Amino acid sequence: MDIPNIDKHESSFNARFKKHKFEYTSENNRQKGYFFYLPFRDGEVTTNEFLKYLMAETIHYAISYDKRKKFCNNLTPENMSEYMSLRKEIKSLFTHTNRSGDFGELIIYLILRDFFNAPQIVNKLKLKTASNVPYHGADGLHIKFEDDNLLLFFSESKLESVEKTDNQIKKACDSTKSIILNEQVPNQTIGKRDFEINLINNHFELPNITELQKEKILNYLNPLKQESNDCKYISACLIGFNFKFYNEIKGKNNIEEIFLDNYKQIIDNSIESIKANVSNSGIQDKNLIFILLPFESIIDFRKQFLELL
Hints:
The chain has 309 residues and is of the alpha/beta class. The protein contains eleven helices and ten strands. It has helices spanning 10-16, 47-62, 65-74, 80-93, 102-115, 166-180, 192-203, 211-220, 245-249, 255-281, 298-308, and strands at 18-19, 24-25, 31-37, 40-41, 44-45, 120-122, 140-146, 149-159, 231-242, 287-295. The strands form two sheets. Strands 1, 2, 3, 6, 7, 8, 9 and 10 form an eight-stranded mixed sheet that branches. Helix 2 (47-62) packs across helix 11.
């Protein structure tokens, strides 16, 4: 079964993301590592272009397809107030604190949607009870079909304004463990993974599919249906960190070559951290994807992102 991924913008994604040729796969083929970075242009990293790209994608991340379609069909020079209202709604959905992680959740959304071809099935951003209260649980839920299996992705974003990745990887493993192992939700009788699946049943949002297709997808998530035996759970974790070498190599003609050499050292250290934390968490046999992305400064990037909203 093919799932329509109508919001996928592969050309824009490839313009704003690059990926190190090295990829990590664990011995049991359960853990994967992908190492992204921002492109360079004329001796500088393209941070401003990346911010503009994220701004353009906020509408796909925050606003439902049906509402976007209705807006585009009705857009005329006379009703630009509707556009301003839509932008105001988007802004209200993002938190406005110095520790807001919404832009990281947007980034992992884009990577899953465009690189892994797994569209979002629940709009977690809209499930916030207030603009400054983030929804607790997985940061995102995405799906795709592969070899007659339904892959259900639970996304996590861990960003810290530090030069190492150890703490983010540990936090990602802790969060992943609680969902993948279906640990009990505090003060409730339901497991965390089951809680997320209930959200899909109650807030299913996948455009351009028939009711029959929707029913088939939900059967894969129903333990009383045979199809559920062909559902695979995958945790996808974005690890964001500060890359101190950006300022040191700025303006050099071979900036990308120097960057990749230094990045590989961080990748190697991060892989060792992934191995240790996965083992310590007891989730070696679970499907985990770790995605690294370095920033010039996460604090500065967060501030610019919120100012542009």
